[in-house]
Amino acid sequence: MKSLAIINQSGPITNNAGQESVDLVLASASFGQGVSVFFVDDGVFQLLNTQKPDELEHKHFAKSFGAFEFYDVENIFVCKESLQKRGLEKAQLNVSCQLLTQTELNAQLQKSDNIITLS
């Protein structure tokens, strides 16, 4: 089985990259790809459980992260340094994930056959 890494780098309302990432994850997983999802830089803001995008007239795509488990997407990785630089903690995130250092993230990325970065 081919493996795909999807890297999320932008905040939830910066552009449509977050929604595109969710769509890509679900579509790829439904066709049998092994998918790993990475949240780095401002991409960690996509995971905050305090988001209120509807107040800004944006779709609340973060609710879709809960569907990942139904598609056997279990590899959700978050950059520990990205959280720290933004004053965030794992308890503020709305998904079950693994916090990894940049070195550990790079090691996980090396295991992937294909990498797509959404920014």
Topology of helices and strands:
Blueprint: E1 3-8, H1 17-30, E2 34-39, E3 75-79, H2 80-85, E4 98-100, H3 102-110, E5 114-118
Parallel strand pairs: 1-2, 1-5, 2-3, 3-4
Describe the structure.
- The chain has 119 residues and is an alpha/beta fold.
- It has one domain (3-50, 61-118): Hypothetical Protein Ychn, Chain: A.
- The chain is 24% helix and 21% strand.
- Helix 1 (17-30) links the parallel strand 1 and strand 2 (34-39).
- 29% of the residues are buried.
- The model has no long low-confidence stretch (mean pLDDT 87).
A few lines on this structure:
The chain is α/β, with parallel strands linked by helices. It has helices spanning 17-30, 80-85, 102-110, and strands at residues 3-8, 34-39, 75-79, 98-100, 114-118. Strands 4-3-2-1-5 form a five-stranded parallel β-sheet.
